TrEMBL record:
Protein's organism: Saccharata proteae CBS 121410
Protein name from the UniProt record: UPF0075-domain-containing protein
GO biological process: amino sugar metabolic process; peptidoglycan turnover
A single MF term (Gene Ontology): ATP binding
One Pfam match: AnmK
Length: 373
């Protein structure tokens, strides 16, 4: 009887943030002696590659007008991190900048429109230029299962935060917000994930407007802390779609213009829009998370905003709320690490658990693989 060979796989995982301020990359090593024992993940490198303003403008132009040639949009992350690809990397995986993510065809009434996803990370090109096997299109695979293409990491989050007696959540506040739930006992078939609403891109657009671009975001929540939340505006907008294409900079502009006309200050606008993110997240926890929810581990740039954290702690007083760096993972690295995990499992042909809505999920293979040869 053949004996399974030990797994040893070095992976680069990357994720271009939906807020378009940069890309997060991880270089990790997965090891596993046999399929029946735990999978180990060792951090080798983590880095952030800032999105150049010129490139960000091209991407935004493509999103809004569809007139920027895709070949102009590329990021060479390995150069930034000094990784020796041929010696230190076996597989590459990740997610490029999202250009279009249409999950609700009823946004276009009267038109025959299919659900679709487009991002600017052509895995064929990556494999050809690097000579390394590349995986991608995880969101498209998720779409085929009648899911939303995001989030994707319930199975991975359950692996690294599961606890014998505690129910835990891992959340990401980036351009949008999502969380996954790991039930006490760590049963993979009971974990689930979901999006909750707008995140940083909504807030960032407001800050950039009022500072004429001098500030990219509300660092440490300083601007929002000086303002007063308009609760009527928060309540009105909580049910809007989360995607930039339907709930993005133009929506932030409409809220800002309305509030200014009603006599609000810039600080009031930032405080109100920040609270839309915070309240949407809190309400989703109350509606969908099990009770009790023992711990929440926060990741993503929005986790640094104390106004969001304060609101969440007020709404979930019995839950211990902290950040994922307490577990040894940098705040911005969560999704890049998740893609590295999907890469590892896809490369060896091992299905992962994909939650179907909020019911018990199923085991499936995600992604498309392009070999270097």
């Amino acid at each position: 009887m053949a004996t399974a060979k030990p797994l040893h796989l070095r992976v680069i995982g990357h994720n271009v943030r939906m807020s378009m301020d940069g890309m997060d990359t991880v270089h990790v090593e997965f090891t596993q002696e046999t399929p029946s024992v735990p999978l180990h993940c060792k951090f080798l490198r983590y880095g952030e590659v800032e999105m150049p303003k010129s490139l960000e403008k091209k991407v935004m132009h493509l999103i809004k007008t569809n007139s920027t040639p895709p070949e102009e949009i590329s990021v060479r992350f390995e150069e930034e991190q000094g990784v020796q690809l041929q010696k230190e990397v076996d597989v590459i995986a990740g997610q490029g900048q999202t250009i279009w993510h249409l999950l609700l065809s009823d946004l276009f009434p009267g038109r025959d429109v299919s659900r679709a996803h487009l991002n600017m990370a052509e895995i064929c090109t990556i494999a050809a230029e690097t000579g390394i096997t590349t995986l991608g299109n995880f969101r498209v695979s998720d779409f085929s299962l009648r899911k939303q293409g995001c989030p994707l990491f319930a199975a991975f989050d359950n692996l690294w935060v599961n606890h014998a007696t505690k129910t835990r959540a891992v959340q990401k506040i980036g351009g949008t917000v999502n969380f996954s739930i790991s039930m006490a006992g760590g049963d993979a078939m009971r974990c689930f994930d979901l999006d909750t609403g707008p995140g940083n891109f909504f807030n960032d657009a407001t800050v950039q407007y009022f500072t004429s671009g001098e500030r990219e975001f509300d660092e440490y929540g300083e601007i929002g802390a000086k303002g007063t939340v308009n609760q009527a505006v928060v309540d009105e907008w909580l049910d809007c779609s989360i995607r930039r294409q339907t709930f993005g900079d133009d929506t932030a502009d409409r809220i800002r213009k309305r509030m200014i006309e009603e006599g609000a200050t810039p600080e009031d606008c930032v405080a109100t829009i920040t609270n839309i993110t915070a309240q949407s997240l809190a309400e989703h926890y109350k509606r969908y998370a099990p009770d009790p929810l023992d711990e929440v581990f926060m990741g993503g740039g929005g986790s640094r905003n104390p106004n969001i954290v304060k609101h969440l702690r007020e709404q979930l007083p019995k839950t211990h709320i902290t950040t994922i760096d307490e577990l040894g993972v940098p705040l911005e690295a969560k999704e890049a690490l998740g893609f590295a995990f999907l890469d590892c499992e896809g490369f060896v042909g091992r299905p992962v658990m994909v939650p179907l809505h909020l019911k018990v999920g199923e085991m499936v293979l995600l992604g498309i693989i392009i070999t270097s040869g």
